[in-house]
Amino acid sequence: MITVYSDLGKNEYDIHSLTKAFYPHEDVRISEKEQEEEDKSLVYCFENGDKLSFAVPGNDRDELKRTIYRKLSQRTGKELPWGSLTGIRPVKMAMDRFRRGLSRDEVIKDMMTQYYVNRNKAELCADIAVNEMGILSGIKKEDFSLYVDIPFCPTTCLYCSFTSNRVGKDRGPVRDYLKALFYEIRKTGDLFKDRKPDSVYIGGGTPTTLTPRELEELFECLEESFDTAGAREFTFEAGRPDTIDRERLKVIKKHGVSRICINPQTMNEKTLRVIGRSHTPKEVVSAFYLAREEGFDNINMDMIIGLPGEGEEEVKNTMRELGRLSPDNLTIHTLAIKRASALGDRELGELRKRLPLTDRMMEISVSGAYGMGMEPYYLYRQKNMSGNLENTGFARKGKYGCYNILINEEVQDILALGAGAISKRVNEKGDCERSANFKLADQYIANVDKMIGRKEKLFFS
């Protein structure tokens, strides 16, 4: 346990995030400053009795973070790849600098000197910013993105914090959910009848837990309510290879989906068992080639580095196997420990402490993506990520996932339907306003009219 005493309440998030980055396996608590330490801005009290105290000059947030970074870096001997940055969208910072007229070298230098970002990450950030600005140049603000959530999975993965429901033999809960979802789709379709979706994304959960007939009904409802045929991109997260078959793929292809996701997370069978996935690497390969046979020419695959029990050799094996498949997109995730996941359970604290460092694993993965002829096109970060790293999307030219950029950069409205989905409106000032649906399926079903009303107020009041 590390207790940080502070009177800088409005900066609690930054203090906590930076401290966790240096001490990922410690519980960190922010508390009001002790009376005897009132002349100090921050006091760190460690479980072994050690104390670290220091003043923070002025009220500047960036200077506060730089000071914390320097002090904790000196104490631990660590340097973090993203330096003092605690935000989830560093690419946005790089784009702002390009728009102010800075050159690539100046952007990189500024991120290194102002935030202590290391050179590799600063260069990656600058290159992705250039790619994103090119992709976003064709985006119309008056259009919107449409997201639909299917919150069902065959099993729950150890690391997953999304609200999902296991699908059993009883299809009643699925049918009840779809009835409410179709109602929300039709009602919001009426509200948005004068606007067209720029991109469509069906995610979850695992949407391929729906039967072929249920998928038909979903697509038909969407097509009746929105101009999905006019979307520049239509993504379907097929996800788990053990839910993919030819009949489902035919339905998905028939309804105009242009990009699908087949996500192994790892190609090591032992790890798949540990994290609670019931498929094998062979099933990943079979599902991938089945999708190619059905005409899908834009396939994304996800992998996670830092999984329990995996080291450099396991990551190398995953990259070799994915290289043989040669997908069109590869999203490299760094394991993030979420409190709502099984891995976030306090009882698994010892397992978390044995999670490997991931700096070298990231290098192996990135090198593999470049070796497949891909380039990085989007990046975001999360709290409590292993190694204080990032999630990066790679793709071949022309195969980018536009929705992935839009959800992060918040430059276009997002209408999000289904349990746990969060709609976003970009207002006239460029600020993002949100409206969240109820997370649990039964609460969503019971309150669907209320959530439609929230959307009408968000987008049209």
Strand line-up across the major sheet:
13-14-12-11-10-9-8-5-15
Count the DSSP helices: 16
What is the name of the CATH architecture of the largest domain?
Answer: Alpha-Beta Horseshoe
Shape: globular
Q: Report the span from N to C terminus.
A: 47 Å
Mean pLDDT level: 89
What's the number of structural domains? 3
Q: Under the CATH scheme, which class of the largest domain?
A: Alpha Beta
Helix residue percentage: 40-55%
Q: What would the CATH topology of the largest domain be?
A: pyruvate-formate lyase- activating enzyme
Biggest sheet architecture: 9 strands, mixed
Which labels suit this protein?
Glutaredoxin, 19% strand, alpha/beta, pyruvate-formate lyase- activating enzyme, four-stranded mixed β-sheet
What does the secondary structure layout of this molecule look like, with pairings?
Elements: E1 2-6, H1 12-22, E2 28-32, E3 42-46, E4 51-54, H2 61-76, H3 90-99, H4 104-115, H5 119-136, E5 144-150, E6 152-153, E7 165-166, H6 172-191, E8 197-204, H7 212-225, E9 233-239, H8 246-254, E10 259-262, H9 269-274, H10 281-293, E11 299-305, H11 312-325, E12 329-334, H12 349-353, H13 359-371, E13 375-380, E14 391-395, H14 402-409, E15 413-417, E16 422-426, E17 432-436, H15 441-446, H16 448-460
Parallel strand pairs: 1-2, 5-8, 5-15, 6-7, 8-9, 9-10, 10-11, 11-12
Antiparallel strand pairs: 1-3, 3-4, 12-14, 13-14, 16-17
Helix pairs in contact: 1-2, 3-5, 4-5, 6-7, 6-16, 7-8, 11-13
